Amino acid sequence: MPTYDYRCDRCENRFERVQKFSDSPVKTCPKCKGPVKRVVHATGIVFKGSGFYINDSRKAAGKSTESAPAPKVEAASKADLTSKSESPKPAAISEK
Question: pLDDT of 12-30, one tens digit each?
Answer without folding.
Answer: 999 999 999 899 999 999 9
